[in-house]
Write a structure and sequence with these properties.
Elements lengths: L11 E2 L2 H14 L1 H10 L3 H5 L6 E2 H38 L3 H6 L5 H14 L1 H5 L3 E7 L2 E7 L15 H14 L6 E5 L8 E5 L1
Antiparallel strand pairs: 1-2, 3-4, 4-6, 5-6
Helix pairs in contact: 1-2, 1-4, 4-8
The structure holds zinc ion.
């Protein structure tokens, strides 16, 4: 299921979606229980070996669904938020060039946000799969939009549910822009919105 099939144009997403979600599960439930869980939900391949290349985004979507079904939406939200934070930590350590760490926080906030969000936008498919990322920078911060978010696709809920993305954006933006900023999902396709909307304030 998680093999890549470029020939048939499978929708792909970066392996961190799986790696960091499994890591967050292990933090919460321990290694052994996580292994058992992955086998029980039919993703035993990830118990044996975590992916190292792009994967079918359906593997991430089905892992999210299995976590929610197994642990309830609230506990799943906590685990997915932690997975988002771990993903941001990985990106900060491995994908954001050292000069950006030094320069971005010193720029006027609006300029820093514009530069960083443009760079994030260029790599959006690696974390959003077929979700479509866009943004606007305004006087109060920024507004991020994720259409067809893998985290809320096909879900109906009465509150925003994309905790992975909410926390990932916040953990990524804080050290590079302003440690005090807060990212909050204010509209979610799970509530019937056209896209998931995250305010950066
Ligand atoms: Zn959402």
């Amino acid at each position: 299921m998680h093999a890549t099939h470029p020939a048939v144009g499978a929708a792909r997403i970066g392996p961190n979606s799986i790696i960091q979600t499994v890591g967050a599960l292990e933090e919460e439930r321990g290694y052994k229980e996580t292994q058992n869980f992955l086998r029980r939900i039919g993703q035993g391949d990830f118990a044996d070996q975590l992916p190292t290349t792009m994967i079918d985004e359906l593997a991430f979507i089905s892992l999210i669904g299995a976590i929610r079904a197994d642990m309830g939406v609230e506990a799943a939200g906590r685990i997915l938020a932690r997975a988002g934070e771990r993903t941001a930590d990985y990106l900060l350590a491995n994908r954001i060039p050292a000069p950006a760490h030094l320069v971005l926080p010193r720029l006027p906030r609006r300029l820093g946000l514009s530069l960083l969000l443009k760079a994030i936008s260029g790599h959006a498919w690696t974390f959003a799969g077929t979700g479509r990322f866009s943004y606007t920078v305004d006087a109060k911060g920024a507004v991020l939009s994720l259409a067809d978010s893998p985290e809320s696709r096909g879900i109906v809920a009465d509150a925003p549910i994309c905790h992975y993305y909410e926390r990932c954006f916040q953990a990524l933006l804080r050290p590079l822009i302003d440690r005090r900023l807060v990212v909050r999902e204010v509209a979610c396709t799970a509530q019937g919105a056209e896209a998931c909307v995250f305010e950066v304030r």
